[in-house]
Write a structure and sequence with these properties.
136 residues; 2 domains; 4 helices
Length: 136
């Protein structure tokens, strides 16, 4: 009887040690535990691109806005798979916007109001060039 209890105690201890090690592994590898305290990924930031932190609120706002636009265009709700793809698309657009903005600043590229007006007029003439109400 005592032998049986001893065997069960050993089994329970080994099981507890394995569970504790598995939990520690989960914290380190899955949750990204940061023992040094330098982790900038927190509830306020979803990432950092070339030194620019991306706020969680702004990213979620962009995702929600893009989702609303997609749902209005399609006339229905998005599935979880579509929403996941949309989040990835918004993330890629965010990265592109940040990197292009840095490159534009680095190259000292500037666009005037006149440049924007000319671009809009040129675009409108390409779209509606044959429409009489848009002829000037």
């Amino acid at each position: 009887m005592m032998s049986k209890i001893h065997q069960m105690t050993t089994f329970i201890l080994v099981t507890l040690v394995v569970l504790i090690l598995a939990f520690i592994g989960l914290m380190i590898f899955e949750w990204g535990a940061d023992y040094s305290g330098t982790n900038f990924f927190n509830e306020y930031t979803v990432g950092e691109v070339d030194g620019v932190k991306i706020p969680y609120e702004q990213f979620n706002f962009n995702v929600a806005q893009t989702r609303r636009n997609q749902e209005q265009q399609s006339g229905g709700s998005m599935t979880e798979v579509e929403t996941s793809k949309l989040r990835n698309q918004v993330w890629d657009q965010t990265i592109t916007r940040i990197l292009l903005g840095k490159e534009i600043d680095k190259l000292n590229i500037a666009v005037t109001n006149e440049d924007v007006s000319n671009g809009v007029l040129q675009f409108m003439s390409q779209l509606y060039g044959n429409e009489p109400q848009f002829q000037t």
